[in-house]
Amino acid sequence: MKNEENLAYFLNEAKTIKPRELGKKIRIAFLASSTINGFEETMRVKCFQKGIDCITYVADYNQYNQEILNQDSELYKFKPDITFLILDTRHVLGEHFFSLYSIPHQDRKEIVYTKHKEIQNICRTFQDNFDSKLVVTSLQIPSYSPYGISEGEDYGLKDVIYKINYELFNEFQRPASPKVFIYDFNEFVSKFGENNIFNYKQFFSGDIKISTEYIPKFVNELMGYVYASSGITKKCIVLDLDNTLWGGIIGEDGFDNIKLGDNPVGRSFVEFQKRLLALNKRGIILAINSKNNFDDAIEVIQKHPNMILKEENFACVKINWDDKVVNLQKIAKELNIGLDSMVFFDDDPINQEYVRESLPGVLVVDLPKDSSQYPQIITEMKELDVLKITEEDTKRSDMYLDQKKRKELENKVGDFNEFLKQMNIEVNVQKANSFSIPRISQLTLKTNQFNLTTRRYQEEEVLKFSSSEDKIVECVKVSDKFGDNGITGTYIIEKKDNDEWIIDTFLLSCRIMGRGVEEIMMNQIIEKAKSSGIKKIKGEFIPTAKNKPAENFYEKLGFKKEDEFWVFNTDNIIKKPEHIKVIKNE
Amino acid sequence: MSEKLYRIVSKVFNVDNSKINDETSSENLEEWDSFNFYVLLDEIENEFNIKFDLDETLEIKKIGDFKKIFQKHRIDE
Q1: Superfamily name and number for A404-585
Q2: Given A21, A283, A322, A441, which residue has the most CB atoms within 10 angstroms?
Q3: B interface test, pick of A5, A12, A198 with most B CB neighbours within 10 Å
Q4: C-alpha to C-alpha distance for B41 and B66, rounded to whole angstroms
Q5: Which domains does chain B have, with CATH numbers?
Q6: With an 8 Å Cβ cutoff, are A212 and B39 in contact?
Q7: Using CB atoms, which residue from A8, A15, A205 is nearest to B39?
Q8: Chain B residues near residue A37 by CB distance under 8 angstroms
Q9: Beta strands in A87-228 (DSSP E)
């Protein structure tokens, strides 16, 4: 990662970058109640650096109401993927920002009601009319009140803003499948401080409400939405051990002398580990890649009293004298994830450079020598953001632990078919519903390997498909004797006419592939088609750099190639894997 | 000091150092616009460890004007 550049850098870079017409694309609109020069430039450059072509639209100053409420507006024509609405307290409260207490309690109550309704109306209209996500910044809690230290009134200056924010969070940010997101602006303010981000001179001169120096930092806060919507979120953190998870070198300093715990340096590693553990609990996979004697290092992980991360928190452990790049490749393979969904933490600049050069997909953290900075680095990584934590996310670390046990059984049993029989796999087929739609969208955005068409769909699109008469959207929940894998596969069928169905999307999480679940899913489609009197099922294979594992799937199941399509005649049958129990909840 | 000032101006406006002199202004430098002027002020404040007051910022029409303010603040050339 590069050091954070200043706004001049972004303004100048923005003039030189050109869309590359390859890779990911995103359309971003900005609406605001103050001057927001520099925002779109910074965002375009940041996207460009991540391989995303970003096209932006900036609405005229203070036109956000008309842009959203009027269906002929430029914003409608622009068709954004994400829209940022930057609101601010001065604008929303107007004169009341200075003199709220000159009006009685009842009127102040009225202000909360009216202002909340105004913003709510904009959000709801947006929600109903746009395919875009809308990110609205919450209002900054005033840091000053004429009441000074006695501030704390019911419907007082701060309370009014708290209440408006609360209502917005409650309605828009909390639902399982939000389309409108409320960005907690006070998080930004508390991180950098009002005296830094608000510059009176710039405000009086140009109605600039976030000072030029802090614009790149603010835009960086918003990047999490962009990464998550583009599906380039990182899933796995790979960690070195010596001077990364603890201070010192185990092979030289020994078990009793490494720094972990009760001294200044040791505390920074403990805190870093606590941050990692919290991320692990919400779905980030952890792995180890360390050059060490296995026995020395594993002893620390198993027995050190101040070690926060335990063996069970690591989905994959490579402690050996092998090449770090080779280890990373092995980790990717064993966990069945792409190298581009990995983050690598290693204190050694030579290792950092080596991995950066050899595996450009891996995000290599520019870890400084000073371990006291580690906790901040991990808490500021926007690449780990997801729009909504799903149930699968919170269970993921347990699932990987189950996966380890499966691997052990597989190695023990030896014969793969016998292993599958012993797994007691259960597949639960269900129609998409409000609980599964966020996860289905997440699967289309993140699944690369066993994905026949790699079509990426946002939640709103999946929702639209699932309520359409012309489409079937179903997903499978897979469990076995080691545990629940959650929703791991999905397909979207387009009912073309009375004779023919087309497979629009068919994918399976790589954790599950190769155990017969994909055959069960296709069987399900074929049976359904048959019972609806459909003669032909057509599917495409759209090759990408990563979906080779799915390349021969149609052929294996007896589909015949006709032009660019693979076609299955429903008079035929396909062999159904017998080791899997199927439950239907349609 | 001229050298340092010109270097900052050339960096912010992304133009060659040789194009910058005391007479450079928004009139004769295309890259100078009303918004990146704020960025320039900010950079100069940080680099010279100085705070302009609002009046001073409004007086700056060309690069040479920065030098007048510097003299007032007793920053050596």
Answers
A1: Gcn5-related N-acetyltransferase (GNAT) (3.40.630.30)
A2: A441
A3: A12
A4: 10
A5: 2-72 (1.10.1200.10)
A6: yes
A7: A8
A8: 35
A9: 133-137, 180-183
